[in-house]
Design goal:
16 helices, 43% helix, single chain, 3-stranded antiparallel sheet, 12 strands, 356 residues, alpha/beta
């Protein structure tokens, strides 16, 4: 069975030869360096024969000047195509150097005109997808499932510009500024989702972190008012272009309160299902074939602090409780951090590959 067949069978609740796996959120820089020293290889996905590869649009040709929004940048800062500034919070050699601080481009915005005038990226432009279908086909020709990345779909990219505090206050105030900004972001994402689905990508990976480890980051009512209908539009754009495309939704934390809503608007797969705050077995019992689970192996617990045998036991326990009839994709619930022993990574892969 090919990796692609395995992923599609599992995510459509058929039983493959074994659960699929990958390292969805990658390795922290220090952990990647350690991996490369230990193996002589460059890419963990290739080295471990992971079942998926993540693809993104071609780079933008725009050179938008966001200086009027960001001011003078501190040393080492950079700006992405959304105009979001990021500054390093540690030296490049630090173990957790991937954690950046934000420079908010819309912190000082005050009205709807500011949201209308702000330059958004051209993720809806034809040239950014000219070779995307060919890249998808090339991955699939290797027998691997092709994932299309759309992380930080609406909420996160908005608060990265506005700041979380100000955006949540906007929500509470019923701000026309926030409504306009989110609608403009949503329109970009609708176009992107349609492109991805038409390209033949197997899974479109959407998501916004809306959970904490004790529940929702905002009230369910606020999420349903501001984010659910816009996410529904993005998913509808994907499924209108290709009804059988699989939609993956990522949120860290405990989002149990909105799982039914996510299924209602077309989410097929929930990620990462942190076992420290969500119960994968309970989710499977409650939602059965209506939802597949992707992740479930804790990067706050078993991966960094367990032994290789603990990792193997967790993999086996998850398969027995959640994946006996498909519907399970095994992965670390977040980035592989520097504290994770290399032996635990190897044990995870071995346990998955040796399972049935």
């Amino acid at each position: 069975m090919t990796s692609r067949e395995r992923v599609l069978m599992a995510m459509r609740h058929q039983r493959p030869d074994r659960p699929p796996f990958d390292f969805s959120w990658g390795f922290a820089p220090a952990q990647l360096h350690r991996f490369q020293e230990a193996t002589g290889a460059l890419d963990p996905e290739d080295y471990f024969d992971a079942d998926t590869r993540m693809l993104r649009p071609s780079p933008t040709r725009l050179a938008t000047d966001y200086s009027r929004y960001l001011g003078e940048l501190p040393p080492g800062a950079h700006v992405d195509e959304w105009g979001i500034g990021r500054r390093p919070t540690a030296s490049p050699d630090a173990a957790h150097a991937h954690l950046d601080g934000f420079i908010y481009s819309l912190l000082g915005a005050s009205d709807e005109r500011d949201a209308l005038d702000y330059p958004l990226p051209d993720l809806d432009a034809d040239y950014r997808y000219q070779d995307f279908a060919a890249r998808v086909a090339a991955v699939q020709a290797r027998g691997i499932a092709a994932l299309a990345a759309m992380e930080c779909t609406i909420f996160e990219v908005a608060w990265y510009m506005r700041s979380m505090e100000r955006l949540l206050l906007d929500f509470a105030d019923g701000s026309p500024f926030a409504a306009t900004l989110l609608d403009r972001i949503t329109a970009v994402r609708e176009a992107q989702a349609g492109r991805y689905a038409a390209s033949g990508a197997d899974v479109i990976c959407m998501g916004d972190d809306v959970g904490t480890q004790r529940g929702m980051l905002m009230s369910v009512r606020m999420w349903r008012t501001w984010l659910k209908p816009r996410l529904a539009r993005v998913i509808a754009a994907a499924k209108s272009a290709r009804p059988d495309v699989l939609v993956f939704y990522h949120s860290d934390g405990d989002v149990t309160a909105i799982v039914e809503d996510l299924i209602e608007i077309g989410v097929d797969i929930l990620n990462p299902v942190q076992p420290e705050c969500m119960d994968p077995a309970a989710l499977r019992r409650r939602y059965g074939r209506r939802l597949s689970l992707w992740g479930t192996i804790g990067t706050q617990s078993t991966f960094p602090f367990g032994s290789p045998d603990d990792v193997r036991r967790e993999v086996q326990a998850r398969i027995e409780a959640v994946g006996a009839d498909g519907g399970l994709f095994l992965a670390p619930t977040h980035m592989i951090e520097p504290e994770v022993p290399f032996e635990n990574i190897v044990a995870f892969v071995d346990a998955v590959k040796s399972s049935t």
